[in-house]
Amino acid sequence: MKPTESQIKERLPIWKALSEFFLDTELQQENLERIARILAASDHSEDELENILICEVCRGCRINALLPAGEWVSFDEDWLVERIGPYYGRQVWFKRLFIWRHRWIYDDKWKKVRPRIAEIRAQKIHLC
């Protein structure tokens, strides 16, 4: 299913943030914090965000992590929409195998960002 313009507009900040896991560069703590804040601002649960990471972003961006000299600064928004858009809302067949084969690319970063999303959201609740 091809996403609508409004679906792309809603998902693009998430795609952009998660796509940084697939850049050919080492993310610093401040990068991970910024990514966590972007993801925390979304309406998606941590489980939903992880599903977007695996089923959409990883499928579209994993090739960059496999290239000898992949993109290292950032991905162009149009490129992200073109690469990730076709996977919008779709599940991965043989998901466990897919995760097993590609987890090495994103897992260490996701393990740092995911708990931070919950912390940021909890802080916002306490401030209200």
What does this structure look like?
There is one protein chain. The chain has 128 residues and is mainly α. It has one domain (5-127). Helix content is 70%, strand content 0%. It is built from five helices and no strands. The chain has helices spanning 5-19, 29-40, 46-66, 77-84, 95-127. The radius of gyration is 14 Å and the shape is globular. The chain starts with a helix and ends with a helix.
Key traits:
128 residues; mainly alpha; 5 helices; globular
Task: Give the helix/strand layout.
Blueprint: H1 5-19, H2 29-40, H3 46-66, H4 77-84, H5 95-127
Helix pairs in contact: 1-2, 1-3, 1-4, 2-5, 3-5
| Helical percentage | 55-70%
Distance between the termini: 38 Å
Overall pLDDT: 88
Give me the number of helical elements.
Answer: 5
- The fraction of residues assigned to DSSP E strands is under 5%
Shape: globular
Number of domains: 1
Protein structure class: mainly alpha
Compressed to H and E, one letter per element, the order equals: HHHHH
Total number of strands = 0
